[in-house]
Amino acid sequence: MPAVGLGTFGSDHVTPDQVAQAVKGAAEVGYRHFDCASVYGNEEAVGASLEAILGSGVKREEMWVTSKLWNDKHSEGDVIASCRQSLKDLRLQYLDLYLVHWPFPNFHAPGCDVTSRSPDAKPYIHASYMKTWRKMEELVDMGLVRHIGTSNMTIPKLKLVLRDARIKPAVNEMELHPHFQQPELFKFWSRTASSRSATARSVRPAVRNATARPRTRRPPKIRSSLRSPAAMEFTPRRCASSGRCSADRRRFRFPFTTTAPILSALPAIRSAAKRCRPSPGSTATAA
Fold this sequence. Notes:
Elements: E1 6-7, H1 16-28, E2 33-35, H2 43-55, E3 64-69, H3 79-90, E4 95-100, H4 126-142, E5 145-151, H5 155-164, E6 171-173, H6 183-195, H7 198-202, H8 219-225, H9 245-248, H10 260-276
Parallel strand pairs: 1-2, 2-3, 3-4, 4-5, 5-6
C-alpha cells in the first residue's frame, strides 16, 4: 500500500468532474493510491479517470484503490451488490481494499446537516456487524476484493471484530491529524497490525500500518500539500487552475514510502497550535 494516497471526498463543495480531474492530475505526478467511497457520489467519474490512467500505461498492480460500504448497505443482501456497483462505477475488476465505512447501519439523507440526528438510529450491535463482516469475507473469497477492513472504529469494537472474524481486517481507517490524533487507538492498531498474520502485514506501508490521505481534490493543491513527506503543509492555499502541475513536480520525491516525519511531528504541531490560539477577547495581529 503506498504510504500517501488521495482522498476523493468532495461532494459537499466540488463536482464529481472536479474530483475526477484531481485524480488524473495526481496520477500524473506519481500518486498510485486512491481512496474512494460509494457515498461520495463520484465513483463513476473517478472510474473514468482510473480507466484513463490505466490506459496510459500504468499497470493495475501498481495502483491501490479503496472503496467503502455505506451505512444503508449493511444488510446481508446488499453488501456484495454494493461492492459490485462500486467496481462497475470505478471500471475495475477488483478492489485492493474494501472498508465498512462506519460501524452503524444508519441512513443519512443526502445533504443532511452534520448535527442532525435520526430517531431511528441504531447503536453498534456486534452480532449485526458480524453478519455484514461475513459478507465482506465472502467478497475476498469471490476474488472481488483483495483485502477488507474497518473504518471509524473504536478499540472495544475492534477487539470484538478481531476476536470473531475469519478474515481479520487488514486496515483500520481512522481520522488522524493535529487536532484529532487518537493516540490510544493509533497505538492499539499499530501493535495489533504488527502481531497479525502475513496478510495484514502485506498491506502495510513503511510505517506502522499508517498512510496519509490529504483532504484535497484540485491537482495544484495536491502538489502544494505535499512538497515532501517531511514538509507537509496541513492547511495549503487553494488553487483553481491545474496549470502548475508540471512546474510543481520538481518539489516532490515520489513515490512516498514513509509517513514517519508526518506522524512524529503531530504532537509538536498540536502543542504549537494550542500556544498560538488567541485567548478569548484578545486580538491577533500580523506583521
